[in-house]
């Protein structure tokens, strides 16, 4: 694509250069630039991409997009905001791929990954090809791609959607984080269905207040249906039991389907029963009743399933097919995942890293606990500090024994994070073991028959970030190893 075409939807600050080279790729990272590329300079949180123009040109960049003066002999186009312009350029370069996909976006504090996996299963069961983008990674059919963020930057996103179109994907399901909405990573994504799971405290380090956090998530709904290039009907699937839905409902132009545990909603669940092997409930939709059986555990998962059923219905999939898919789904990696190595107690690895999710998981565990509950939990560094004492209190209140340990301390002092978790607590059932491996081993060595150990916060993660170094760490592996060691 020619440079002028690529930049044609931007508002240039100064006259666009007269040179019009052929552009063979677009990159925001100088290290990945190849001959013929446009390099976009992003002034980031840690470094300023404008410093890397020389390296980009050495690697073959034939044009630069910048928001600050740069010295180079290749043509430079200047815009006010390169981060937001990058989404427009990416969308142009990859030919607006999402207009050729059914696109489902899921936002909310907890339950996005889980809901995306349920929707994926529903679409697959309907014999259609899926693409998934989220915390655990990106997938096209069964092919897996790694990702650093829950919602990647706009270039990665658009290139991924282009791959999905090439691979003849029918429906793409993606998690849309509040950071992504606020930073414009999803600008240019034409959603057909937007799902809201819930809003509770997280990410106040980034958004500053719950109100700003709520507003950021709301962008998914206010922007839904703004596109003129699609004739398709748009749907917002909203959790009626969450206050924030009222606001999102009034801000969207799309059709709204509400779900929850109240009979006033379009989709509602009652007669919820926790069974040994999962959960069963009665779904009410359009005056019909359906018995839903699933292997997922807990009332919070009933909400996730209701949201996914709403998305399935909006995708025109028959309720019977949707329910078959839900019954089939084995579980989501690192979410309420049982670890079995022949022991006579239960070990559950779960990704709860917010106060609300921890409370939900521990309350669910208490419903079927016959004996003591041990909770091994930590809080991430360089993240919302105010959630730490809340999570500490929830763990101590809802467990026989709480073991506070490190999550990903990142660049913070792990001891200070643990101090934050203990702040204001007078419980005498807290043990602090900074080393996560030792903390898991401690819980497993002390467990008695029928006890339950919950290892919270890192779920599917296979790494631990201490300082800036990343090393292999996997809660499931650690738990298995400790169980085998205990046996001798
Ligand atoms: C605060 C934030 O969102 N930061 C994101 C941002 O990084 P940054 O601004 O620090 O980038 P930077 O390292 O300063 O680099 C600036 C520019 O210089 C370029 N560069 C850099 C080095 C070099 O040699 N050459 C070069 O060109 C970089 O490619 C980049 O374009 O842009 C990066 C690329 O897109 C993101 O990976 C990174 O996410 C970091 C890892 C992060 O932790 N983000 C979290 C807060 C986040 O976004 N989380 C949400 C929500 C999670 C959830 O609850 O679900 C998510 O969607 O993941
Ligand atoms: N609907 C829900 N309400 C409250 N808690 C939930 C819900 N669904 C899942 N959880 C809890 O939250 C944890 C994270 O779930 P999940 O990974 O699906 O959320 P997420 O929104 O994708 O999180 P992230 O923001 O990290 O991407 C689960 O391990 C579980 O403890
Ligand atoms: N998407 C969340 C994941 C947190 C997971 C937890 N293990 C941590 O590292 O804090 C975040 O980036 O805030
Ligand atoms: Mg997620």
**Which strand order do you get reading across the main beta sheet?**
8-7-6-9-5-10-11-12-13-14-15
The CATH superfamily of the largest domain is Mur-like, catalytic domain
Strand content: 15-25%
Strand tally: 23
Largest sheet: 11 strands, mixed
* Bound ligands, named by name, code or SMILES: ligand UAG, adenosine-5'-triphosphate, 2,6-diaminopimelic acid, magnesium ion
By CATH, the architecture of the largest domain is named 3-Layer(aba) Sandwich
- The CATH class designation of the largest domain is Alpha Beta
Might you state the CATH topology name of the largest domain?
A: UDP-N-acetylmuramoyl-L-alanine:D-glutamate ligase
Category from helices, strands and their pairing = alpha/beta
Gross morphology: globular
Question: Total domains, how many?
Answer: 3
What is the terminal-to-terminal distance? 64 Å
Motif (Meso-diaminopimelate recognition motif): 407-410
EC number: 6.3.2.13
Cofactor: Mg(2+)
Subcellular location: Cytoplasm
